Amino acid sequence: MTERKRPRLFSDDDATTPETAGADPLRDLSDFRPGRRPADDPRATRDLVRPVAEESGFRSRDPRNWADDTPRPRGRPPGPPTVAVSLRVNVRTAALLDQIAADREWTKTRTFERAVAALERLLAEGVDPKTLG
Q1: Residue 52 belongs to some domain of the structure
Q2: How many domains is the chain partitioned into structurally?
Q3: 32 in a structural domain
């Protein structure tokens, strides 16, 4: 197995004097000032970094920088608005609703909605609600 060596962080010129040999490069922070850099600062700027990043295949996380400018879908598309309904029913009715939903592999919500739609059709046909039980 070959030993992998890390690239040198500093050139050999940095270690030529005895006082800097092996010294911590961050030991002297006297020139550090927090805040924005002046405009004439020679360090890398966005204009210098962007072409290098694009050339190497880096894709920005900012969606405004995506080439196709298509919005990305997030999660499921919104469905119709819903409201919460809480009903107090007898045990037989609750068990029947559960059984119908299980037999047809529907959710309780879908089962309730279809039951209401069926009742609506019956009432439209002129069926007397008192005879439904």
Answers
A1: no
A2: 1
A3: no
- Residue 97 sits in which domain range? 91-131
Question: Is the separation of the CB atoms in 65 and 46 below 8 Å?
Answer: no
Helix (H, G, I), strand (E, B) or coil at 126: coil
Nearest to 14 by CA among 5, 6, 23, 4: 23
Q: Residue 98: inside a domain, yes or no?
A: yes
Q: What's the angle, vertex CA 17, arms to CA 12 and CA 22, rounded to 5? A: 65
Residue listed under structure tokens 């959710």:
107
Summarize pLDDT for 19-57 with one digit per residue, the tens. Answer: 555 556 666 777 777 777 777 777 767 777 788 888 888
The full DSSP string for 29-59 is: -TT---SPPPTT--S--HHHHHHHHHHTT--
> In which residue are the tokens 């107090």 written?
88
